[in-house]
């Protein structure tokens, strides 16, 4: 018992020492930063301020440019021709291929509306699969809903149905955001290794990319039970 107590005490001391060391390093770093600022003359501070302002201005201009290209809102495009135009002018595009009669498309709509406002860097679109047979054939879209994730004009990845989203109708917006982050189609600030599934043990961190075998069913297999 005493030996056990002693080892616990040693461990505790080691841990306390680690914490002290870390705190010391952080404090030294902060002190150095403060000292650096204190030693700066007015010209240097002005220069720093100008650089910061320039960076903010640039970010604002970039945002305005995105908004002028239709980013920031989740929009329906009327035709296949529009799809090609839209993906040509934006680096990152998420396009939801939907069908009016598929209930799960409405669920997807709800989440995409939120994400379009949050991730202005990416363009969020929807296109009626029944009005775009050529595209669906070319992109091999058979299950509805499917999100085509387009980077630099090329379709890089697909979110097919809700398989990657925890296989449930009540997945969270955060779960879809994580999945889009995995595809690097949005600027994701969370931890990709830690998916926000409702039950992480069950689903783990793996997600499936488009599997050719799953899409050779009948045309527009609905990924819901409402047909």
UniProtKB/TrEMBL annotation:
Keywords: Cytoplasm, Cytoskeleton, Nucleus, Phosphoprotein. PROSITE patterns: THIOREDOXIN_2. Transmembrane segments: none annotated. SUPFAM superfamilies: Thioredoxin-like (SSF52833). Residues 53-181 form the Thioredoxin domain. InterPro entries: Thioredoxin-like_sf, Thioredoxin_domain. It comes from the Eukaryota. Its main location: cytoplasm. It is found in: Cytoplasm, Cytoskeleton, Microtubule organizing center, Centrosome; Midbody; Nucleus. GO terms for cellular component: centrosome; cytoplasm; midbody; nucleus. Forms ternary complexes with the chaperonin TCP1 complex, spanning the cylindrical chaperonin cavity and contacting at least 2 subunits. PANTHER family: THIOREDOXIN DOMAIN-CONTAINING PROTEIN 9 (PTHR21148). Significantly diminishes the chaperonin TCP1 complex ATPase activity, thus negatively impacts protein folding, including that of actin or tubulin. This is Thioredoxin domain-containing protein 9. It comes from Ramphastos sulfuratus.
């Amino acid at each position: 018992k005493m030996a056990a107590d002693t080892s616990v005490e040693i461990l505790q001391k080691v841990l306390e020492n680690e914490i002290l060391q870390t705190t010391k390093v952080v404090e030294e770093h902060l002190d150095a930063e403060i000292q650096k600022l204190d030693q700066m003359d007015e010209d240097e501070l002005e220069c720093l301020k100008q650089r910061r302002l320039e960076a903010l201005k640039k970010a604002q201009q970039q945002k305005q440019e995105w908004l002028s290209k239709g980013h920031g809102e989740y929009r329906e495009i009327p035709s296949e021709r529009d799809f090609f135009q839209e993906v040509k002018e934006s680096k990152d595009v998420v396009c939801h291929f939907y069908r009016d009669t598929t209930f799960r498309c409405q669920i997807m709509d709800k989440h995409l509306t939120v994400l379009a406002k949050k991730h202005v860097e990416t363009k969020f679109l929807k296109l009626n699969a029944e009005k775009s047979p050529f595209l669906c054939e070319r992109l091999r879209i058979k299950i509805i809903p499917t999100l085509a994730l387009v980077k630099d004009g090329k379709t890089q990845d697909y979110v097919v149905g809700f398989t990657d989203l925890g296989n449930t109708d009540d997945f969270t917006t955060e779960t879809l955001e994580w999945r889009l982050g995995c595809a690097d189609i949005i600027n994701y600030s969370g931890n990709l290794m830690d998916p926000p599934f409702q039950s992480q043990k069950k689903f783990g961190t793996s997600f499936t990319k488009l599997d050719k075998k799953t899409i050779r069913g009948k045309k527009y297999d609905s990924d819901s039970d409402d047909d």
